[in-house]
Design goal:
The protein has six helices and 28 strands. The strands form seven sheets. Strands 1-28-27-26 form a four-stranded antiparallel β-sheet, with no helix packed on it. It has helices at residues 2-29, 36-49, 59-65, 117-123, 144-151, 159-168, and strands at 194-201, 207-212, 218-223, 227-232, 238-243, 249-254, 260-265, 270-274, 279-283, 291-296, 302-307, 311-316, 322-327, 333-338, 345-349, 354-358, 363-368, 377-380, 386-390, 395-399, 404-409, 416-421, 426-431, 435-440, 446-451, 465-470, 476-481, 485-491. Strand 8 (270-274) and strand 9 (279-283) form a beta hairpin.
Length: 496
């Protein structure tokens, strides 16, 4: 029984194979005849559409020619570089007929490979675009074939992307595809290194603020020992000690328009000192908490103060009257700066924002929210219409009047308390760790880093820098530090 089943299965299998062979033997034994009429119409259509990137060369033509440099009916020659490849489809063909529209002829008389826009649209089933006038055409624009040739792009795989680029450029002319220009980092300007030249001691508490008078003869410091001291800039000797505050003095400013010295402190008081008599002549009452900073307007008799009560107040120096109360911050106002141009007042706060104020209206013009931590320092550029702000996350540069962001300066690992900027483009920043960083303003390059060591008898954590300022000649840098001293830095001339 098993033998009969086996023979019947073999017969069925042989019969199936025989039927399959009889069905397809005609296709295998006899070559397919090419349609001459279809081949002739295809060549005519190829002439009407213009040159293309890749021109097919039929096997029948190559068999008829029988030579390596065989020409087809349109005058194309086989590229010697394609020798050894399958002849059914040739790579780049060289065209001998006159150039069509949109083709550029090189100096050697050779025609680069191009792609006709109408042929591309018909290939991608795109609607034909309206004709373009002669004045709109760009005679110097590179053809699409030239773009392929110089950029090294493959022919067929990039056709849809190139078509979209052509349609975005107007759909009627060959768009010039240029490489995106790389971001150029400005070259840092060379600046002389700085070194410590003098240490001035005399305060009994942390030195919190410092200012240099316009004549560059003396400077003034305010301290946590509740005193204000005036020092000779050249010799560093103490000239006058002013007492009157009952708490830490947090800000001092010397007027260039009158012989007045202004101070503020954590006792909520703002005082005006007459330097001819060394006594207080005015009190500015209004702040509800500690006053952390102040600044004088350069052209108007106005004083601006920032307080822990989240407000900045504008005072008339002559009448002691409060002109405006700038409300809007949700944290303590740590620093204020004034300038003659709009916006005339800039404030930095512990709510991590910077506000640019309209002095006339007394309201916020722009609020900058780029910082993530409290902003304790702001400095204006002496010659450019820019400023910088310091925060524990970064130092940021801004462009006025709208506060456009320029760049970040990163490198500090502690709270930045102070910034100073010279007209030579040297930006100085000091932090709670006693690190003094010197930056090139344009490039943001940190060209020097100094560490201020605490003086003998001080604790290790008393190496913080509270404020730094250049003198009027910008040849000396003065820092107020937590070790109860004032340090003077100068450019190191030993390298010359």
């Amino acid at each position: 029984m098993e033998k009969i089943q086996k023979e019947s299965v073999d017969k069925l299998l042989f019969r199936s194979l025989k039927r399959t062979r009889d069905m397809f033997v005609a296709d295998v034994a006899k070559p397919v005849q090419s349609d001459e009429e279809s081949h002739r119409l295809k060549k005519a259509k190829r002439r009407a559409c213009g040159p293309v990137l890749h021109m097919p060369i039929w096997k029948e033509d190559l068999r008829e020619k029988g030579s390596q440099h065989a020409e087809d009916g349109d005058g194309h020659k086989e590229d010697p570089a394609s020798k050894g490849q399958e002849p059914g489809y040739s790579g780049a063909a060289r065209h001998q007929h006159p150039p069509g529209p949109g083709m550029a002829v090189t100096a050697g008389g050779r025609i680069p490979k191009t792609l006709n826009v109408s042929a591309l649209q018909s290939k991608l089933c795109l609607a034909p675009s309206p004709p373009q006038s002669r004045s709109e055409a760009n005679p110097t624009s590179a053809s699409l074939g030239g773009i392929h040739q110089h950029a090294g792009l493959p022919g067929h795989s990039e056709l849809p992307g190139l078509a979209m680029a052509l349609m975005e450029a107007g759909g009627t002319k060959n768009a010039e595809m240029r490489a995106k220009r790389a971001h150029v980092v400005p070259k840092p300007q060379w600046h002389a290194p700085w070194k410590l030249s003098r240490v001035i001691s005399g305060h009994l508490g942390w030195v919190r603020c410092i200012a240099v008078e316009p004549g560059n003869q003396w400077f003034v410091t305010g301290s946590a020992d509740r005193t204000i001291k005036i020092w000779a800039l050249a010799s560093g000797k103490l000239k006058v000690t002013l007492t009157g505050h009952i708490s830490t003095v947090r800000g001092v400013a010397v007027s260039a328009r009158s012989p007045y010295l202004f101070s503020c402190g954590e006792d909520n008081q703002v005082k005006c000192w007459d330097l001819e008599y060394n006594r207080v002549i005015r009190h500015f009452h209004g702040h509800l908490s500690a006053v952390y900073g102040l600044d004088l307007h350069p052209t108007i008799d106005l004083l601006v103060t920032g307080s822990r009560d989240s407000t900045a107040r504008i005072w008339d120096v002559r009448t002691k009257a409060s002109v405006h109360t700038l409300a809007g911050h949700t944290g303590a106002v740590a620093t204020v700066k004034c300038q003659a141009a709009e916006p005339q007042i800039i404030t930095g706060s512990h709510d991590s924002t910077i506000r640019l104020w309209d002095l006339v209206a007394g309201r916020t013009r722009v609020t900058l929210t780029h910082h993530k931590r409290s902003v304790r320092a702001v400095v204006l550029h002496p010659t450019e219409y820019t400023f910088a702000s310091g925060s524990p996350d970064n130092i940021k540069q801004w462009k006025l009047p709208d506060g456009n962001f320029i760049q970040n300066l990163s490198g500090h690992k502690a709270i930045i308390n102070t910034l100073a900027l010279s007209s030579k483009g040297v930006l100085v920043s000091g932090d709670d760790n006693g690190t003094l960083c010197l930056w090139d303003w344009k490039s943001g390059h940190n060209f020097q880093r100094l560490h201020s060591a605490a003086q003998p008898g001080s604790l290790d954590y008393e190496s913080g820098i509270s404020e730094c300022v250049f003198d009027q000649s910008e040849s000396r840098l003065l820092t107020a530090e937590a070790d109860k001293t004032v340090k003077v830095y100068q450019e190191d001339d030993s390298i010359w």
